[in-house]
């Protein structure tokens, strides 16, 4: 009753505002989640089609050509080869066959000595796992050995001569998987990498932009939120690394993709410096939070420099995707360093000096990601930063250009 009276009197409905804000946040999260799920579907779409095609072909060959009345293992092996280790499918096929061999050997030997039953099954699986671990085998071999041992123990009483078909199906499934990925349906490696790189680079650029805006407005909360979002980047980096390995494998195995090998070099060499740029940007953002907390000065060029870093990341993504030399990204990285030098000259506190140093380090990472050697990138950074880092009266380094290059050619 009092609630209604207050509302009629024209007072602010605080609870209603809170509910509206919470509802809006839930809607935003729902849209973000749907977008993420659709992106994952697009990322996995090619793999799903490859797996379905490989499973169907393996089934047909095993059933129609080899006369297997129950062709179960061949399609399972094909799907396992494709899905379990993207980027290492040839190795996965070898591990699959090795695991099957170990499982068959241990299963047959212990069945011969002990017979079949529940406790024999448990013992066979235990011995298969311990033996493969002792031999230093990979996780994939351990799993295959244990799974094959289970099949040998459980199916041997009702199915005779299971060992040879199991070997054949392992070879068949793995071979069909490689055939599909290399010849029948090879994915475009650059498209795969571009899709995987986009979330990681977009995340980095967005948080750098948020940090720049937060510094301009001295908004600690927004900078802290950017730091929290950037810290949750393990999935994006893992997807990028896996996509690079998968693309390299496709370009190696597939004759139709051999012409893409040289284009993949940029991405393969860019993975590590992008990872370092993420980490150094995290330090930059964390120190920006401290800078605001300690009420240190924020010279105007400092947030501008961070904004230029964000734009450099976006340009790097665009130029990689277009197959272009990333000259614009390099120029923007150097502009970020130049602005950082101006900010340093205007005067900063302790945390501000750390932010300036991290701008330089992140810009160096982005230059290396663009294809520049580390030593050359460091020289450009020193030149772009200007004279602020040298004590008064110290001469310039021998051979150092008086002005920073804007978009120098590679090599």
TrEMBL record:
Pfam families: FUSC_2. InterPro entries: Memb_transporter_dom (IPR049453). Residues 401-411 have a biased composition (Pro residues). Residues 384-411 are annotated as: Disordered. It is a multi-pass membrane protein. The chain crosses the membrane at residues 41-61, 73-90, 97-115, 127-155, 167-187. The keyword Transmembrane helix applies. This is FUSC family protein. It comes from Micromonospora inaquosa.
């Amino acid at each position: 009753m009092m609630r209604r009276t207050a509302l009629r009197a024209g007072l602010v409905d605080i609870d209603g505002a809170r509910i509206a804000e919470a509802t809006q946040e839930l809607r935003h999260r729902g849209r973000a989640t749907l977008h993420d799920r659709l992106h994952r579907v697009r990322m996995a779409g090619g793999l799903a089609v490859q797996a379905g095609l490989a499973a169907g072909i393996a089934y047909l060959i095993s059933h129609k050509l080899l006369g297997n009345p129950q062709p179960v293992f061949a399609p399972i092996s094909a799907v396992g080869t494709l899905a379990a280790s993207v980027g290492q499918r040839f190795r996965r096929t070898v591990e699959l066959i090795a695991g099957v061999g170990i499982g068959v050997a241990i299963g047959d030997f212990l069945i011969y000595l002990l017979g079949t039953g529940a406790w024999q099954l448990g013992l066979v699986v235990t011995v298969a796992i311990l033996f493969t671990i002792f031999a230093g085998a990979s996780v994939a071999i351990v799993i295959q050995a244990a799974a094959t041992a289970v099949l040998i123990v459980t199916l041997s009483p009702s199915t005779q001569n299971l060992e040879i078909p199991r070997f054949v199906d392992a070879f068949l499934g793995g071979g069909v998987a490689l055939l599909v990925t290399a010849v029948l349906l090879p994915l475009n490696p650059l498209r795969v990498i571009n899709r995987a790189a986009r979330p990681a680079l977009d995340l980095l650029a967005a948080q750098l932009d948020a940090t720049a805006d937060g510094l301009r407005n001295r908004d600690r909360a927004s900078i802290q939120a950017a730091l929290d979002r950037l810290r949750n980047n393990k999935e994006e980096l893992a997807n990028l690394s896996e996509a690079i390995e998968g693309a390299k494998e496709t370009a190696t195995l597939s004759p139709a993709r051999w012409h893409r090998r040289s284009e993949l070099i940029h991405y393969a060499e860019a993975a590590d410096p992008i990872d370092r740029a993420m980490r150094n940007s995290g330090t930059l953002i964390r120190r920006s939070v401290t800078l605001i907390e300690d009420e240190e000065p924020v010279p105007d060029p400092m947030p501008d420099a961070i904004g230029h870093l964000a734009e450099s990341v976006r340009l790097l993504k665009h130029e990689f995707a277009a197959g272009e030399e990333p000259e614009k990204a390099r120029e923007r990285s150097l502009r970020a360093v130049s602005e950082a030098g101006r900010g340093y000259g205007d005067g900063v506190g302790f945390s501000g000096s750390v932010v300036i140093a991290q701008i330089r380090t992140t810009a160096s990472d982005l230059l290396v990601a663009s294809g520049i050697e580390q030593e050359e990138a460091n020289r450009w950074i020193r030149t772009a930063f200007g004279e602020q880092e040298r004590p008064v009266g110290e001469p310039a380094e021998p051979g150092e250009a008086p002005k920073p290059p804007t978009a120098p050619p590679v090599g």
